[in-house]
Amino acid sequence: MGKCSSGSCGSKKEGSSCGSADATIARQNVAIETSLGKIKNKILVMSGKGGVGKSTVSTNLALGLANRGYKVGLMDVDLHGPDICRMLNLTDRIPDRQSKNDLLPPMQYSDNLKVISLEYMMENRDDPIIWRGPLKIQAIRQFIADMDWGELDYLVIDAPPGTGDEPLTVSSTIKDAYALVVTTPQEIALADVRKSLNFCNHVKMKVVGLVENMSGLVCPHCSKTVEIFKSGGGEKTAKDFGVTFLGKIPMDPKVVMGGDDGQPYLASHTESPAVVAFTELVNRVEKAMAAKPALTMASSCGCGGVCNPDTCDC
After folding, report:
1. Residue 178 parent element (H or E)
2. Which pLDDT tens digit goes with each residue over 196-205?
3. Which of 68, 64, 70, 76 is nearest to 41 (CA)?
4. Which of 250, 267, 249 minimizes the C-alpha distance to 258?
5. Which neighbouring-strand residues pair with 42?
6. Residue 211's pLDDT is what?
7. In the prediction, which pLDDT does 309 show?
8. From residue 291, how far is each of 58, 263, 307, 314 by CA, in Å?
9. Torsion angles phi and psi, residue 43, rounded to 5
10. What is the mean pLDDT of residues 202-216?
């Protein structure tokens, strides 16, 4: 029996490898469509540069929305460096599937917050993930198709850095996802973030906004903020691309300790500049997603930089 590299050679005979693969993909597409149909808002947290705090932003955004009574899912698609489970101190492993048709339960962090990460499925969480593109694409599709997300108000998706397989798979699979782009103030990070915004424009993904993380250091002694990485670059970049600036989040040693201890900062209920900034981020995202048709594309166009998805062809 012959096989083709594309998985679609036109052979539809009973038992043919290509026909079987096509049938499997078709079934998965139906499952994905069914699952996504139960989720109102999908937000991809991304950045062109690593180390800017995407996982911290994703975790605290999801937790902040859940604390307001929304039903939230948090999906970690940073397959080579999944951190979400550790940041939330989730140590369970995925249960055995009783039947190939059974949906699998995401981890339940709280009544309002469900979580899925590749670490949920690994026997040894320190083992490396040595996968090429097709395996990563399939894993992300399974995260959507095979998980019992149920009815959700928000699905927050934590992506790895760059504009490769993972964000591209999300944009092509979850066609109504919106991007939240994370940067730090220094120019080297902003250069990579501009690539992310151009990526969003290329794949026609609407942008919730841009947040400047690590915007100054909160002194642990006097609580004043020191701008060690400069400040204002994120706001300028957002203005240049015509997207909403969601605010500045200062560095706070307590945020780092909270992530390492599995106690997200917003769960601490401690008042600090970082908590105030995270709370304001949640406010602005909530407001922006409530007005989704007015969200902008990631670069200017014939509409003057403000695109309505129902009317704009740019």
Report:
1. strand 178-183
2. 999 999 999 9
3. 70
4. 267
5. 155
6. 96
7. 42
8. 20, 32, 13, 20
9. -125, 120
10. 94
